[in-house]
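Checked the freezer inventory, then went back to the computational side. Two predictions to log before the end of the day. The first one is the construct we discussed on Monday; recording sequence and tokens without edits.
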Amino acid sequence: MVAAAVYGVAQLLVLSAPTRSVRMSTSLLAIAVGAYGCGVAAALLELAYTRGAAEATGESLTEVVKTASYTVDPVIEELAKLAPLLLAAWNVRVRRQWGLTDYLVLGAALGAGFGLLEAVARYGLDAGRAIPHPAGGWAVPDSLRAPYIPGAEQVFSAWFPAPQGALELGERAPAAATSPHLVYTALAALGVGVLLRAKGWRRLLGVLPPVAAATLHALTNYAAAHPMDRDAASRVDTFEGALWAVPLVCLALAMAADLRQLWRAKACVPGVLVHAERAGRSGLGALASYGAWCVPWSTLITLRFARLRRSLLYGVSGGSAYPGAEWLHRTVVRSAAQIDASDREPAWRGAGIRAVAQAARSMRDRHRRGYVLVSLALTIPALLLLAVGSFPSAADLQRRFASGAGLHVLIGFGIAGWLWTGFQLVRLLRAWRATFAFPHGEVLVIVRFRVWTALGGCLAGALLLLRMMDGAAPESPVIRNLHLLDALNNLAAYLGFALLLLSLLALFPPGGGLGFVLAGGTRAGAALITQEGAVYAAVYGTLGVVLMAASGGSTESDAPANEPQGSTDPATSDSVGAARERKVAELTDGTVPSGAPGKPGMKVTKPGAGTTDVDVIGGDGSYIAVGGPAKARNLAKFGEKCHILKYAAEQNGVRAQVYLEEGTPESALNVARRILGNENVHVFVR
């Protein structure tokens, strides 16, 4: 069942790659949000409505639930599945940086998670009754139209497979059904994207997809509630046969609109094209060529750069500037410069598994391993029950957890997992606050998705504990006569605890650069990291260190990335240095002590350490060193030069400053800041 839900989302992830800006891990996290956030919210809302309606009208609860299944419940469920998208897009950074493709893919993932919850709640404990089908998959013999769990052959040969379906009597070659919740929510999410991104009267078109999704959902449920209505069944059979094509048509429309916006934005945003694109190559060809230099590292860097640039361009297409757009632009410009500087084979000679491992160690969070190990340990009983025990050959595991010591172990772990989820929720709420103004919208989305997953797990755990405190047996249903296709009517309390434990798998603290940003907040304005550096770390992570190393060592000259690369002509190097020194002298109202910009400056010495050049003497007498991206080639040497400059300036009672051209790696900037102080390190545009 899990494979079916994930595979349907994976299909969209692959097809949407040319215009998608959200990463794969965020889309997979949305599956967990669909199960734990949307599923719990829909269950509570339906519970409140059906109980309230039964009490107000005097009708039996069973009749109210039946009527609600095709009147109110489809609307509740579709709104619950869209709620995470709407709440995330409430933030202007997220709303502006998502394209229609992103809305559609994340909506499909939310729907897939919701459908997975229904399937597991209904059939998660039926491994002992399941009968293998000769063509693959398993049938649960409880009616003439038996529930069917597709096998690997059916899942991987279908478009957007559902976790469960129905097996007609005598059917010899069953196929996986199309996941209705994935389709409905993908369709509705496209409408949300149009509502939030379109202008003028076109916004009104965004209302149609959610209405269509709720209508189709209601018609399907009506046919299920009235099996004798042949007309309704015929209509459902008609559109279910073409249901698989709906996400493909929606995706084609979304990608066409997004490509148009990207092409327009590229033409008006400066500095975001790599050299090969400026020379006339297509974006796909230029980035594919770069990604082939050192597979998989350069390939992954290319994919991350492409997604980051799309986020920037989607935001630009919205019109006026929004908070954080400048930092995102600077990060994209810097990344494009680094790609230009490393777009040749010699730059990647030192890149390999060892170099990447060393970079990973530099970003390692010493607390992360402990959090991961605790979460993994707590999920062991749930994995045994629902992963290993879900196969008929291992069904005895489910029976062991249904009573006796196994049941007590599962409930004990479930309570511990509930408390651990609450602790994780507190940490995530702090991260939410720390990253509230972060420039890159995807970081905000990741934090919010994890918060909603943890919040759903906490609410579900509280409901389970209240039911048990009321005297309900662990094997009794948590909620009776509730829709979600009556799935939760079969949800035993101990199965609920197992599902709660599995939510911890979605709450692992992220590693790499994203983990660094979430662990420490943005630290914007602090001495440790700038907003630009935080965005860079969050997007590239460990590979950002690899990219900085490749771009810093790709040429003998100190030219920035938009200069011709690979030249060792002194004239080229001198002209670049001269332009920089003239610019800094102009900015500081200073002079070039050499008298000839681009030539060696005034020599200063620190006994026992060596010498360095003062490139510009500022208007206030400051000793200023000027440089660019190549300062990151040898950070130790650059640090020594900064120490010498600082010593010489102090001996003469003046300030020591460094001016580095835009595009210089953050590693070089941080070295200079650590030695000279933030106020004495400047980034300039030549």
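The second is the one RB wanted added to the comparison set:
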Amino acid sequence: MKRIPLILLFIYATVLVSCKKDGIIALPEDTIGKTVKPVSKLKAAATSNEKELEISWTNPEDESIIKAEIAYRPTTTGASASPNPVMINVTSGSESKLTIRVPATIKYTITVVVINKAGIKSAQTTADATPYSPAVADLAPIFLKRADTLMTSMVKLYLDGMPRDIWSASYPRASGYWDGAAVIWGHGGAFSGYAALKEAAEHYPAYKTKIASLYDNRLLKGIDDFRNTRNGRPEAYAVYPGDGDERFYDDNIWVGIDMVDLYMLTKSPVYLARAKIVWNFILAGTDAKMGGGVYWKEDGNSKNTCSTAPAAVLAAKLYQATNETTYLNSAKSLYTWVKNTLQDPLDYLYWDNVHLSDEGNPNSALVISKEKYAYNSGQPMQIASLLYKITGEAHYLTEAQNIAKAAYKKWFIPFNSYTLGESFRILEPGHVWFQAIMFRGFIELYKLDGNTTYVNAYKKTMANAWLSGARNKTTHLINGDFRGGGATQTSYDILHQGACLEMLARLASLEHEGL
């Protein structure tokens, strides 16, 4: 018999005593879940390169996830699928983006699965997309084609042959001040339509090239002609071209928002410089009277929702473009003022403006003009959504959703569309440009909460307008009543056509994103 060394006996005895003393030693608790939620907001789209797709999604809130598995397969037989899934690192709640090459120019189903540390996989999330190829048919969204058609018609009917190459106010053209040219409001409305169209065309090379070559320099020069430094004041866009023409703060803000949007799309400093010109002008339109806010016009006496809320939107977008906190602080304070001063607490919609009961006494009572217009609720909805996106503070999202629900109830009406063969709520006959500005708020909110109700109402509204008698089939200009079937319109304002162009173009962008 072999002898056991004393040291081993000692260790064995120690273990026995320990076990008897403390009981069974507890194993570490397994905190990794046995299920994994799937990814959300999966989008797949063609890039401007052949046989290439860009994929993006949001990962679930789960600290245990470590990988995402991406695969593709053709929706038709005869083409190859991905030989091996692509694996990338991911983190909880993050946004992921990936560009992949596919073997053919056909429609593919993209599949994304996330995997946790225990190797457990989520359910599949899928999206379909077809890569770009110059050899295949035009794959652009139908609303991009419609927007391009309207833009081509607008240039022909309102711009070509005009003195100074600035938009005519109406079609048929009429003589008048500045040869019938549009004021900056109408000119800016057309520019907003162009800016939205340029963004919508970003992923479609033929359209992108066309817009850049035909419109970029021409339209920038045209709107720059409205800039002046009236009476030595900060530079701004005047009602008409000319050194002595008056300037409105709200007119300028719409231009400034377009410019910062174009900067974020192109990264061209010429656009950011113009946005900052507008912002500098807006600062001159603010003071402590009535507690804050932005005046409607130079030397005016009212502070309006239509000047203050979009000024907050401009400030938030400038913050996104520059990361300078002074813009974010301005956005917050302007939104707080307009919410506290001009929001109707009974229905969350916004009144028009406020002024002092005695202009000579800054401490006199406030007098509120309580008219309600669609754009005056759309812009607070947009800035609330932007502030939620930037800060993550939940009250901003709730405030935007409250406005959206009330605006949808007020400015959409039940409609049975013979053209589309379905019933839905359509934009009521009203001020089309106001409705286009309101759409911006609904879009910003949709990108946060994914509620398609409101954007789908716009989609059906504009589809009905395009396909019904609301559109003149010769000129492609659109009536103010999107239901069609009404009296034939004989005159078309450039402001309203620019608004229609903007809505069609924004729908094209949403269509590209999967709406």
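For RB: The CA atoms of residues 420 and 463 lie 8 Å apart. The chain has two domains: 40-129, 142-513. Let me know if you want it refolded.
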